[in-house]
Specification:
Blueprint lengths: L9 E6 L3 H12 L4 E4 L6 H6 L1 H19 L14 H25 L3 E3 L3 E5 L2 E4 L4 E9 L3 E3 L25 E5 L3 H13 L2 E5 L11 H14 L2 E3 L3 E7 L5 E6 L4 E3 L1 E4 L3 E3 L32 E3 L10 H16 L14 E3 L5 E5 L2 H8 L2 E8 L2 H6 L5 E8 L5 E7 L3 H13 L4 H5 L17
Parallel strand pairs: 1-2, 1-6, 2-3, 6-16, 8-9, 8-14, 9-10
Antiparallel strand pairs: 4-5, 5-6, 7-15, 11-12, 12-13, 17-18, 18-21, 19-20, 20-21
Helix pairs in contact: 1-7, 3-4, 3-5
């Protein structure tokens, strides 16, 4: 800890109480630092309040649509199937509120002072709160996250983003989702299962750019078979709201569309506006991201940043790792702690979900030249019994020279749950022979990972 920390009101002031900010605050306080955190909206950040947690709860709710249909083949009589959106919406928000309270309790129990107001930087060691109070800190951490990006389209005020989708008054009968990334495909699956007619509009001809091509193709095939419409190489020129509340969507590249709601999921933008970063001399990147080194330090020695605001890997577990590494490095006694960004697992909670770790097949060929690819294309036992033709696909990518498994990609029921354990094997550098030598756990879907030849 800095020898002049006593000259400041706090050893650490954190702006943003999301996943990264809360972890950094808690760990720094555990090391004995005097810590304060400011949050202008709700403690918990994107993940807890308007991101992965409420979205995953919607995913759980959406799965019942197929499960209830399949139940008959397993002997269950479900005479009435009716979905009530307000019930799920309100229960999800109640759970979000509960988690928000727990995050607040965590900060309080670790003696972190919380200011529920906006904070801006007015100097290398000074922060001004919305109430007008100015406080000083030896170190300032920016953990303000990111927000959905909205393009400059006439009538864009009639669109919603992933922030507002959890608060819809009613379920749209027709929804147009704009984008081809994981958020767009997740909500396409969710709303389709809830009974909405879903059209996904993408400016290119590829969904899930950066994911393994086989997984992308399989999800597209399954989504089309389910009845989700796709409009590729299309873009918006205007959104008009009619007197009856319906939206007329004028597009380039395809016919115009009518919808009850249009959801834009075309990327996320770092939250840096109005924070005083440029006035403080903090360097920003081309997308507005806070530029940091491996120790999460900006070009201003007393100012640091972690999480989505740095636009490195926009994932909650990565933000948490960065927050922990920052706190341990700056306030612990173990020296510099760096986050290892190699082999970070990814999941798309689509219907069915995708999970990946390591290199895609194309990236592996570019890096290693010659690789071996093992696949298992099968129907899950439950789908066979239910008469559902949906097939799962697992893929192992192996470096031919070393026989190391350098990538695992899966699409099928529970793929993210299975991949978490499998990711350990890739991170540890295990070889294909290690997979082959592992006895299969039968009957499971995951056994396919050790049976590929």
């Amino acid at each position: 800890m800095s020898e002049v920390a006593s000259d400041y009101d706090y050893d650490l002031f954190v702006i943003g109480a999301g996943s990264g900010g809360v972890r950094a605050s808690r760990i720094a306080a555990g090391h004995g630092a005097r810590v304060a955190v400011a949050e202008e909206y709700r403690v918990g950040g994107t993940c807890v309040i308007r991101g992965c947690v409420p979205k995953k709860l919607l995913v759980y709710g959406a799965h019942f649509a197929e499960d209830l249909n399949d139940a008959a083949m397993f002997g269950w009589d479900v005479p009435v199937k009716r979905f009530d959106w307000p019930v799920l919406r309100d229960h999800v928000q109640a759970e979000v509120k509960r988690l928000e309270g727990l995050y607040g309790q965590t900060l309080a129990s670790n003696k972190v002072e919380t200011f529920l107001e906006r904070a801006t930087i007015v100097g290398p060691n000074l922060v001004r709160l919305a109430s007008g109070r100015t406080v000083s800190a030896a170190k300032i951490l920016i953990a303000t996250g990111a927000r959905p990006f909205l393009p400059d389209v006439e009538g864009i005020e009639h669109a919603i983003t992933s922030n507002e989708v959890f608060h819809l008054e009613r379920l749209p009968k027709r929804i147009v989702i704009v984008g081809g990334g994981y958020i767009a495909n997740e909500f396409a699956g969710i709303f389709h299962q809830f009974g909405s007619h879903v059209t996904l509009v993408n400016r290119s001809d590829t969904i899930l750019r950066g994911y393994d091509e086989s997984m992308r193709d399989r999800l597209l095939q399954i989504s089309l078979a389910k009845g989700i419409d796709f409009k590729f190489n299309a873009s918006f020129s205007r959104i008009d709201k009619r007197e009856d509340g319906m939206l007329h969507l004028a597009l380039d590249g395809c016919d115009d569309l009518e919808a009850d709601a249009v959801l834009f999921a075309v990327g996320r933008k770092p939250n840096v506006e109005g924070l005083g970063l440029e006035e403080a001399g903090v360097d920003l990147g081309t997308r507005g991201e806070v530029k940091v080194d491996k120790a999460n330090r900006t070009n201003v020695p007393s100012i640091f940043a972690v999480g989505d605001v740095t636009d490195r890997i926009q994932l909650t577990p990565v933000a948490i790792r960065e927050g922990q590494a920052f706190a341990d490095t700056q306030f612990g006694s173990g020296g510099v702690v760096e986050v290892d960004y190699d082999c970070v697992p990814h999941a798309v909670f689509s219907h069915p979900p995708i999970a990946s770790v390591g290199l895609t097949e194309s990236d592996a060929r570019n890096r290693y030249g010659t690789v071996k690819v093992y696949t298992s294309d099968f129907r899950a036992m439950k789908n066979v019994m239910a008469g559902r033709n949906e097939r799962s696909l697992y893929k192992l990518v192996v470096d031919e020279a070393s026989e190391r498994v350098i990538g695992i990609h899966m699409i099928g029921p529970d793929s993210p749950e299975i991949l978490q354990a499998a990711a350990i094997a890739v991170k540890a550098g295990l070889k294909k022979a290690d997979f082959d030598a592992t006895v299969a756990l039968h009957p499971t879907m995951s056994e396919e990972l050790v049976l590929m030849h």
